[in-house]
Give the backbone structure.
Amino acid sequence: MVEKPSAPPRAQGKRPTIYEVARLAGVSHQTVSRFLRKDPTIRPDTARKVAKAVAELGYRPNLAARTMRTRRSNRIAVIIPTSADRFPLGLLNGAAAAAREAGYLLDVVGLEGDAAARAARLEALLQLDSTDGIVSFTSLAESAGGPALADFPVPIVVDGVYDDNLRSTGAFADASMAADLLRHLADRGHRRFVHVAGHPEWASAQARRAVYEATIADLGLESCAVVEGDWTPQSGWKAATQVIAGSGATAVFAASDPVAFGVIFGLQSLGIKVPRDVSVFGWDDDQLSRCFRPTLTTVAVDRERQGREAVRRLLALLNGEPPVRPLEAAELNRIILRDSTGPAPKRVV
């Protein structure tokens, strides 16, 4: 005899979720969502099971369909993969400014924890009748236990540029600007290079290394070394004092500005001048790069514009306007030439 599923015990006053309905009915949460939308293609026996589970749990789909919304809260939720204190401030500043200019308040929601915790946090957010739309800077894949994008009760824009460990992914790990900087230095006479890489688990570090190696090969230049790093100044210092100083390289591509700072300090500690003897450039346009000595050549990433454009895309959905084209990574990146790079020295150090 097969025992039929029964409703699990509930904490008093806790509102039932669509996932509990799905478990009790023995179907997926997407099927429950289809039932609540009165999808005519749903099978009659399936509809009966879901209807019974809805009744038994007392589920109230207050946000089950967008058409049920008759008023706006003038609030937008921004979802990030962790707490705000670890997230790029420029991204949130841009999103908040765009929302404010359109008359919206911005709520920041961190989806921390494992897949189950993230799904529960997201479900709680969607049960609140206080969000007109959502911008997510992290993936909301169904595999994480959350609802399908088609099932969201409010408009949503996913600009999933960060994973759970704040690592850039996909197009936003683009490193094409590194090729332009390497060509610029080659035009200034540099022929021997070193790359101090970022952490190998990061897509952005992998991309910057790949662009470095491909460009060196395409231009017929020499790579004296690729040094594994971890994004820290310490890794740059170690690379400078243990590898770069004795390599004969005249130019260094550091995978980030903090790594570049470490490289420069390390070279200077050995009496090697930057850029007279060795040119160094980094990535990200850290605030310190503008007042460092020498000021640092780098690639600036306009995170504020990225945040603004993501909210603009959501506002177009909310207002029934034509879709706004998502930004490509190359549109956010620009080269800033400063004092840490110059012509190749007349002699190899």
Summary: The radius of gyration is 26 Å. The longest helix spans residues 203-218.
